[in-house]
Amino acid sequence: MKKLKIILPFSVILIFYVIFQINHKPISQYSLKDKNVVGYIYECKNQDDKTTLKIKGKENLIINYYHNFKCQLGQTIQANGQMQTPNQNTNFNLFNYQNYLLSEKINYTFTANNIKVINHKSPFLFKIKNALYKHTSKYKTENYLNALILGNDDQINENTQNSYQINGISHLLAISGSQITLFSVILLFIFNKLFSKISAYLITICFLIFYLFITNFQASILRATIFFIILTINKQFALKINTVLLLFITLAILLIYNPFYIYNLGFVLSFTVSFYLLIFSQIIQKQKTYFTKTLIISLISFISSAPILINNFFSLNLLSPLINVYFVPLMTFIIYPLALLTFIFKPLDNLLFLLIRIMENASLIISKINIFNLTLCHINILIFIIYYLLITYILYKWQKGQNYILIFFIILIIHHNINYLNPNSTMTMLDVGQGDSILIKLKHNKGNILIDTGGELPYDDKKPYDIAKNITIPYLKSEGIHHLDYLILTHGDFDHAGMAINLIKNFKINNLILNKENNHLENQITKNFNHNIINIDKGIIKINNLKLNFLNNLNNHNENDDSLIIYTNIENQNILLMGDASNKSENYLLNTYNLPKVDILKVGHHGSDTSSSKQFIKKTSPKISLISAGKHNIYGHPHQKTLQTLKNSEIFITKEDGAIKINLTKGTIQTVR
Fold first, then answer.
1. 84-91, Cβ contacts within 8 angstroms, sequence gap of 24 or more
2. End-to-end CA, the chain
3. Quick one: pLDDT at residue 49?
4. How many Cβ atoms are within 10 Å of 537's Cβ, its own excluded?
5. CA-based R_g, the chain, Å
6. Is the peptide bond before 638 cis (omega within 30 degrees of 0)?
7. Across-strand partners of 671?
8. Rounded to whole angstroms, what are the CA distances from 319 to 171, 180, 325?
9. For residues 439 and 626, is the Cβ–Cβ distance under 8 A?
10. Quick one: CA dihedral 160, 163, 167, 170, positive or negative?
11. Any residues with CB less than 8 A from the CB of 298 and at least 6 apart, and which?
12. What's the CA gap between 80 and 382, in Å, rounded?
């Protein structure tokens, strides 16, 4: 604890510095008015007829070009198109792309209409880099050589990467401290035979700096390299500075250089895990066998990274420490050294390929064991701090000979089931662009209902954005939801049901409700669903004490007018959800039912001028009107006429407010923006 007392005051100063800096976005040399950009390429990725370039011009910039573009690193290009502000997260708890780009000193993205090379010649260092990528392209194990040696894991199969994440071993694909240490030891061994000790260290440091360039100065590699340099200085000049203090100095240097590194997950995990392993190194040193040392290292790494992983992935695999005991030695002592040798001696490629297949298959099999994979809701800053205070206390007591690790795992299990203690019912309209998706979450885990999934149709040969993978499933997990009791699809338009198949394949759903007029998309959805399917247009479905009243029986053979219209009352709040229903459906409701005044209206058809008639709005008199509409949508939704009709209610629109969350129990409203 003495080490903690030394570092604590400096940590507080550094934290305040970082908070101040990240609240003052850096001034960019680009502006949204720029239509032409020039710079040299330092990173290039081709995937699905899309090319993503990172260039250095006035400053770092990402260029998205929806065509294949053969490029060489170091080439100077000119592109014309549209400058854009990177997307922030418009749904609660999810990944913030804008902050991530700031960690790479990127302020804007640029969508190019065309690109031309204005200088084909690459500088010498980039020629070396191009040669290295060309060299690995001749190997069967190209994807892993690029990941483990060149720091680029883009080519590794998505299913395999997902299995690594589920198993808690995705860190093995990132070049980190252990790889840099092994690389440095090999270089020092060679150079010590040829030069003096000091010269060997200097040459090794030069190699590491060059390696930083090869790997695009990735934050975790930068941390490991600077730490190695500081350790070398400490050793050569006999400064006798504590290793933990040296790690803190490394952290301070990097955050002073770029405070936005705090948004880089690899950076944060690298420092956090390294810090805890150093502080509580005595626990490791007490172990007598390699197996137990590896297990303890994996356990401390797992525990110390848990809160960070919870708030980024909303799940943890309790088997992760044991899984790492198998995979870490396999990667550290077999696959990574063999990859270095294979990079030089191509005949070893087949052996490396075989071992990688064994590792991948093992990961895929283990990832299917779901019983130990906990879904854990997003935690606020206070709970986050409490988690780390508890972790520090448990590890401190363990170092003193008292093992309370079991308490931590009990807390994780309680966290996994926390929704049973949740006293609030909520309704969240997700921002899924030009589409609809609404989550109703009942208190005490009495029901989780998703109404529509959203979905973007592909256009201009662009691959459609996977809303289920990138928004819906992560958000459900962030709410601590590990299954849906009901998925309700109001109708078969793609912007309402397009992500249903993806959601069904990747998330547990107990019941599926559709209208009776099923179209081709809905038929495809039902073919992929193996549980209870309910076709309904008019009637009542009970979920515990909740009644969902389905009102529409128009059967107009029109997707929009045949939308399921749902009326319900939750916590004395009258809620009316109109799907894509138009004035025809509204007239049907007015003529068929004695509609009550509603507290919350999900406005029909994204606020178009074909819905929300004056008579309907006068009758229902909503207090809150929710409109789901995509930013810059081609339909002009919501229509000004509709907004005028709704003027007596409080209007929320996803394209302006992001996701909207209403606490039905407390009567409070929260928006992302």
1. 84/32, 84/108, 84/109, 84/110, 84/111, 85/32, 85/109, 86/62, 89/658, 89/672, 90/431, 90/654, 90/658, 90/659, 90/672, 90/673, 91/430, 91/431, 91/471, 91/475, 91/658, 91/659, 91/672
2. 41
3. 79
4. 18
5. 28
6. yes
7. 660
8. 15, 27, 10
9. no
10. positive
11. 320, 321, 322, 324, 325, 328
12. 46
Tell me: pLDDT of 474 over 90: yes
Task: For residue 156, give the DSSP letter.
Answer: S
pTM: 0.93
Q: Which residues pair with 669 in a beta bridge?
A: 662
Beta-bridge partner residues of 429: 438, 660
Tell which residue, 603, 521, 587, has the closest CA to residue 551: 587
What domains appear along the chain, each with residue ranges and CATH number? 36-122 (2.40.50.140), 148-299+320-373 (no CATH), 420-671 (3.60.15.10)
> Is it the case that residue 11 has pLDDT exceeding 80?
no
| CA 549 – CA 67 distance, rounded (Å) | 48
pLDDT digits (tens, 9 = 90+) for 132-144: 999 999 999 999 9
pLDDT at 489 over 80: yes
Residue 3's pLDDT band (boundaries 50, 70, 90)? low
pLDDT (tens digit per residue) in 157-212: 989 999 999 999 998 888 877 788 888 888 898 998 888 888 999 999 999 999 99
Which residue from 193, 383, 419, 251 is spatially nearest to 306, judged by alpha carbons?
383
> In the numeric block, which tokens belong to residue 368?
């299917």
Q: Would you state the structure tokens that stand for residue 51, as one six-digit string? A: 């090319």
Strand order across the 566-570 sheet: 539-543, 546-550, 566-570, 573-577, 600-602, 624-627, 650-653
> What phi and psi values does residue 203 have, to the nearest 5 degrees?
-65, -40
Q: Report the candidate in 182, 573, 510, 542 with the shortest Cα–Cα distance to residue 341.
A: 182
* Residue 39 phi, psi dihedral angles, 5° rounding: 180, 170
